[in-house]
Design a protein that fits this description.
Elements: H1 5-27, E1 35-39, E2 42-45, H2 46-62, E3 67-70, E4 82-90, H3 92-95, E5 103-110, E6 113-121, E7 126-131, E8 136-138, E9 141-142, E10 155-158, H4 166-178, E11 182-184, H5 189-197, E12 203-209, H6 211-223, E13 227-228, H7 236-239, E14 241-246, H8 251-262
């Protein structure tokens, strides 16, 4: 039986808020955290793992036939074709240092095509969400991408992936600055994508993002009237993707700059 998309979204919203409350309790007691370094600028805490286990358990209870892919634990297979893709705390480097720029991310894909996404920022209480064909929303208010036509009209979010050469993102920032643009980075890629959907940022570019960081935000940008470089549904959940996203008027310029900075896609 195929469950209605709105039901799936309602459950994801509830779980994201409850997970956010759990994470916020850890955030208010940072001295008690256990922190590990997984690699260059890649941290994980016991809060990440605990919150992910909570989200997984709630999703498995509500949708036992669905698969689950998350950042901190092994994938769980399913039989329905639906896969939940989750990041319990995107922006862990911020989280463990007491910087209130992090979020809970929950997305659902149907055979590789994202059908819904939720990005909840507990520190501000803001919740961004979207469903395919249902628009993009922030706390019940419809959101829209920027109508800016020039890079001089705002900031562009940028991400630095340790899976790609550092000089590529440095080249992107240089090209962006030469066009009169300003780059923005808050160490939470998912949150920056939500800001693009809400028109706070003109766009966002990163040479590679993992699926749990980008699927929810990319759907929000599409549903908010923006444009994205379409990920390959056959590989995005397992391999991630190149990210170019923004308002429709500014997108071609972002695509041009990324081609120069990153090389052919």
């Amino acid at each position: 039986m195929t469950l209605p998309l709105q039901h799936r979204l309602d459950v994801a919203l509830r779980i994201a808020h409850e997970a956010g409350e759990l994470a916020l309790r850890h955030f208010r007691a940072l001295d008690l955290l256990s922190i590990e370094n997984k690699g260059h600028q890649d941290l994980v805490s016991n809060a990440d793992r605990e919150v992910e286990l909570f989200v997984r358990a709630e999703l498995a209870r509500a949708f036992p036939d669905d698969g689950i892919v998350g950042e901190e634990h092994a994938p769980a297979s399913g039989t329905s074709g639906h896969i939940w893709v989750i990041d319990p705390i995107d922006g862990t480097a911020n989280f463990v240092r007491g910087i209130p720029a992090w979020c809970v991310v929950i997305a659902s894909a149907d055979n590789g095509v994202t059908e819904l996404g939720v990005i909840h920022e507990p520190s501000t209480g803001e919740t961004f969400y979207a469903s395919r064909g249902g628009g993009a929303w922030l706390d019940g208010r419809a959101i829209h991408t920027s109508k800016a036509t020039s890079l001089t009209e705002g900031s562009v979010g940028t991400g630095s992936s340790n899976r790609r050469p550092l000089e590529n993102v440095v080249r992107l920032i240089s090209l962006l600055s030469a066009e009169g643009g300003v780059f923005f980075r808050n160490a939470s890629g998912a949150l920056m994508l939500a800001y693009v959907a809400a028109g706070r940022l003109l766009g966002y570019c990163e040479e590679h993002m993992n699926p749990w960081d980008c699927l929810a935000g990319l759907l929000m940008i599409e549903e908010a009237g923006g444009r994205i470089r379409q990920p390959d549904p056959k590989t995005v959940v397992t391999e991630g993707t190149l990210i170019i996203a923004g308002g429709t008027a500014i997108y071609p310029k972002l695509e041009e700059l990324c081609a120069k900075a990153f090389g052919p896609a």
